[in-house]
Known about the structure:
In chain A, 29% of the residues lie in helices and 35% in strands. Chain A is α+β, with helices and mostly antiparallel strands. Chain A has a single domain (4-132), classed as Aldehyde Oxidoreductase, domain 3. In chain A, α2 (51-68) packs antiparallel against α3 (99-116). Chain A is globular. Chain B has one domain: Ubiquitin-like (UB roll) (Roll), CATH 3.10.20. Helices cover 21% and strands 25% of the residues of chain B. Chain B starts with a strand and ends in a 6-residue tail after the last strand. In chain B, strands 2-1-5-3-4 form a five-stranded mixed β-sheet.
Amino acid sequence: MSRMTDQVLDMDQLLRETENDACGALVVFGGIVRNHHAGKGVTGMSYSAYGPMAEKVLAELEQETLEKFPVSECRIVHRTGDLGIGEASVLVVVRAPHRGDAFDGARYAIDTLKVRLPVWKHDFYEDGSEAYQDGVPLETAAERDPGADQ
Amino acid sequence: MLTVELCGVLQQAAGDRRLELDALPEQPTVAAVLELLGERHPGLAPHLRRVACAQGDSLVRQDQTIDMNRPLVLLPPVSGG
């Protein structure tokens, strides 16, 4: 499975791809489309991405997680396109010999994804309105780049 | 002529997915292009301090010179996951 896909995310495939007999711990994080945001009812969501960079960011993040934590397997996939309530937008699968490391690695992977991956959520609300969710500026935005105003 | 591609909320702000910028200074930096964009497309101006830029699969810093032969991709604050 590509890391960025417009297809339904396949958890079983990820579990097969990461099978490892040396690992006693498996942590899966799933990001799921929920039915509310900022006090408003949500009926669905559309995810868009800058594909060429997003695929690279996820590959690097998998490798970074493997290097920073004593974990043996890390796979991350993210969906794009129109998603309904209850559908998975992201899956993070981490396997490690021990559970603490697997939890730590999975937490790091999803938290870092949230500030690095060029993906945008567009909400559709029950009242018929729609809006892009605000997010986190990437590291080279002027607001975060100390050299930008020099 | 520089092609500028817009992502996410920037498409709404500009009313388009792609813009063409001409009459740029020679070897413009990211910061110089963003400043010109704000002047020529006022709808984008409120977003630009929070926008990062990429060419190909890599981010380019504000003080970096742009490769005029490749589109400059504007990335608003991200909200994946």
